[in-house]
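Researcher: Let's do a round of design. I'm pasting the structure tokens now; please hold your answer until I've finished.
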């Protein structure tokens, strides 16, 4: 072997060794990333609440995109797999995420810890249509507990307990401190909402929405639910002509001229009421079931509730 041959192979050997060490280091880094504790959350409202509690202690993955409908959104195969790799899955439950709950159940059967926030938040049941609720779902649990900030306070505290119990590697003191700070902000929200709604005269505290979503808010802050364009607790239902006729009659009797429609859904059904009631109905957008993208009006739960409170107060006082 000539000196030139030995010299040409030495750099190649060193290069191979360096590449081997680099790949080994990269593999170690990836493994470390995989070891990060993971919390997977179904809806973006619960995702925001959970992120406030977890902070930087674990990775929080939210499955539902901004402006999506929790009743109808589905999962990709990758997202479904995320559930089974989680340390903890937080979901709303009570039938809300209709296309996702089977995946949550599969994760539970695979041994993943799951927490049903709605069930833990002292759920209400839908009332009969004559009482302002969906007839077909009367007696069924209402999943929309987040419209009551006090129930969110309870759920948030329980989420903190679940994170501490089931997510290895988190610092309990940090999680508890995060939860305490967020609880203070939720308490401030509830007080602010009370003061805002105090501007609405008692006789004007009547709600008509595009579907039944504000039962918890109505109970907490003293509103009457007159009815909904879609007489159901889910957006997957649709109204009949008799449903619309009954609603317009109830609105006329109650003297209601304002309909609140979710900003993430088409308002065509709500706007039908303009024709039914002679064009005197106002349709006001709310963020009822989904957060928006950051900076688009309701990027967090707190922003969503403040925006809705302002819109409802202005809409019912004629401001």
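Researcher: That's everything. Go ahead.
Model: Designed sequence:
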């Amino acid at each position: 072997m000539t000196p030139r041959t030995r010299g040409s192979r030495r750099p190649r050997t060193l290069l191979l060794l360096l590449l081997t060490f680099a790949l080994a280091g990269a593999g170690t880094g990836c493994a470390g990333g995989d070891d990060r504790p993971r919390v997977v959350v179904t809806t973006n409202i619960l995702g925001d609440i959970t992120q406030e509690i977890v902070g930087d202690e674990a990775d929080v993955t939210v499955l539902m995109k901004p402006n999506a409908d929790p009743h109808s959104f589905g999962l990709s195969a990758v997202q479904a797999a995320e559930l089974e790799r989680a340390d903890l899955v937080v979901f709303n439950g009570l039938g809300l995420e209709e296309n996702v709950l089977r995946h949550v159940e599969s994760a539970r059967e695979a041994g993943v810890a799951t927490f049903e926030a709605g069930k833990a938040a002292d759920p209400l049941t839908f009332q009969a249509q004559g009482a302002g609720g969906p007839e077909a779902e009367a007696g069924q649990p209402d999943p929309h507990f987040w419209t009551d900030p006090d129930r969110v306070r309870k759920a948030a505290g329980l989420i903190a307990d679940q994170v501490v119990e089931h997510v290895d590697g988190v610092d309990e003191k940090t999680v508890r401190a995060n939860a305490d700070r967020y609880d203070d902000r939720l308490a401030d929200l509830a007080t602010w909402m009370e003061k805002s709604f105090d501007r609405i005269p008692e006789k004007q505290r009547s709600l008509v929405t595009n579907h039944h979503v504000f039962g918890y808010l109505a109970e907490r802050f003293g509103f009457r639910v007159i009815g909904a364009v879609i007489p159901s607790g889910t957006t997957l239902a649709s109204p009949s002509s008799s449903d619309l006729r009954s609603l317009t009659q109830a609105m006329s009797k109650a003297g209601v001229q304002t309909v609140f429609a979710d900003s993430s859904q088409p308002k065509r059904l709500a706007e039908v009421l303009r024709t039914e009631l002679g064009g005197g109905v106002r349709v006001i957008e709310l963020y009822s079931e989904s957060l928006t993208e950051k900076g688009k009006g309701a990027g967090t739960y707190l922003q969503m509730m403040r925006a809705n409170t302002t819109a409802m107060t202005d809409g019912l006082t004629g401001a």
